[in-house]
Each structure stands twice: as C-alpha cells, then as structure tokens.
Amino acid sequence: MQKIILAFLMITVRLMAIAQTQPQYSQYMMNSYLINPAVSGIEDYTDIKTGYRNQWTDFEGAPLTYYVSAHLAIGKTDITSTGARPNFSKSIRRPMALSNNFNGSAKVPAHHGIGFILVADKTGANTQNSLNLSYALHVPVTNKIKLAVGISGGISQYGVDFSKVQVKDNPDQIIVAGSKLTAIQPNLNVGTWLYSRTFFVGISANQFIFNSFNYKNKDNNTQSWIGNAIPHYFLTAGFRQEISDDWTIIPSTLIKRVAQAPLSFDVNAKAVFRDRFWFGTSYRHKDAFVGLLGVNISSLINLGYSYDFTLSGLKERSRGSHEVVIGLMLNNRRRVLCPQNLW
C-alpha cells in the first residue's frame, strides 16, 4: 500500500506542476464568495472571513490551504429590516423583510459590491498563491428578488520545489537537480447569483481563460515546463425553510465541472437553531462525508468547523480533513445575528 501511495504522490506532483486546479473547500456554503464573484456585496455589512483547511490529515505532502476574503456593498439602501425600525442595543434574530422603506412595498434599488480574496495553497512540492479583486452589480428582479452579476481578476503565482522530492528509480533530470520553478499568471472569474431571503441559484466559471503559462527556473530564469490553469465551473442552489419559530433547515447542492476530470457534486443539509447555532452534513460524490458545526456568537463574529470522513482509497492512511472558518461582520448597522442571503 505504501508503494501505491508513494506513486500517487509522485504522479500528483508531476501532474499538478503541469495542470493547476483550485483548492477544495467543505464550507463554501458559509462563504460562497470563494467560488462566485457575484456574491460581492450581497449583505448589509462588510463580510470578512479567514479560513484554514488541512486536507487528508497525517498524509505527508497533503494539501494545506489558507485564505482571507472581504467584500462589502456600495449604494445598498435596501437595508435589512424587521418591519419596524430595529433596536440597535441588541442583535436581531430574524430580519427577513427586504425593503427600502421598512414595509416591503417599494421595489429595492440596484447596488454594487466590491471585494478581494487572498489564497495560499500548498500540496507537496507545489505552491499556489493568488490574489483576486472583484466587482458585482446587484439588480432587482422584483421587490424581493435580485440578480447579481460579478467578475473578479488578479494574479496567481505557481511554484514547484523539487528539492523536496526524492525519487530513486529513473528520476527526471530536473528532479535530480533539485530545481525550483516559478510562474506568474493572470486569471479571470465570472459568475451570476439569483437570490432572495429564501433561495439562491448561482453559476460561475473560474480561471477559464489565461490557461497556458511557462514555468521558469528560479535560479537562471530559463523556461522549463509549460503549465495549465484548469477551468472550473460551478452550479449551486439552495433554499431556506422555516419549520418552527426556532428551527430552520437549509438544503443545498453544488455541481462542479473541472476540465479533464469527471463531473462531481455535493449534497448538503444544514439545520439552524434560533439563528445562532447550526449543524449539518454534506456528501461529496465518491470522496467524503462531511460533518458541519457552527455558531453565530454575536452580530460581530461567527465560527464554522467541518470534518471530512474520507471515502476514497486514501482513507487507509488519512485521518480525514479539517476546516475552520472565522467570520467578522463589520459595520453591521442593523446588528443582524446571522447572514441574510448566505446561510
């Protein structure tokens, strides 16, 4: 089994140096901005999140991902309301009205959203660091439904450090030399997001142009390999159903298409108690079962944690995957306790 795993890692190093994919996330439901730039500025506050993912724990060379994201609305006057002007001295549990004048009768205006996301990902000898800036326009369809169209762009830096790779049988000359290769590549992502207080549907395409780039030797700046940024396509949808004054259930799904890979999908179910505590589960096709937990501590901070139970052939050596997300809701004027459009 160890020989199989070693072979897997070596093939992964070689392939990832040529074809770059985006990191895997289990808590994209908590931060859909990770996969769709149209989410920029969807809430009434400045949404800041930082996340850490340790994939396939105790598996040497397995992926480690860190990110920081922030986005906010510009010109958004349809602020969250409970139907009457809220009490600013305490957090609001369930402000579900979407209105301009606190009674839901007026059609909400369009608004803009801007944001950024910084991601650092490491897998074995491979590193990938990216910075993207985003813009979105949120246009009213009705007085309760909006359609957002977003775009983000930036740069990615790819690297391969062959000094961290050891191969005894017929190694490539570049591996023997212990070379360090780097590449810098622009990227572009687009997306749409149709949403209300009770449902959402999103479609996005990430790194779908600027695909081909050249790795260069870090020491002598000579061209070594040709790399490819693999396009990713996402379709996600979900809805919010209140089953009592205290409990809400939120089923959702994600269908992901990565070029040169089979179609994959996630099925998720989340239960929320009094808009403060939540738990749920997710199934990633032929890959993992995921347990989800979270708490909205106040109108300022929220926490999320997930654990992936590996289902693939790596389960014999992996102790699963951990992911932690910390969120801040700055300038939360209406002191809402939980997000109103991303659940």
TrEMBL record:
Signal peptide: 1-19
Pfam families: PorP_SprF
Keyword set, alphabetical order: Signal
Cross-referenced InterPro entries: PorP/SprF_Bacteroidetes
Superkingdom of the source species: Bacteria
Protein's name according to its UniProt entry: Type IX secretion system PorP/SprF family membrane protein
Organism: Arcicella rosea
Taxonomic lineage of the native organism: Bacteria, Pseudomonadati, Bacteroidota, Cytophagia, Cytophagales
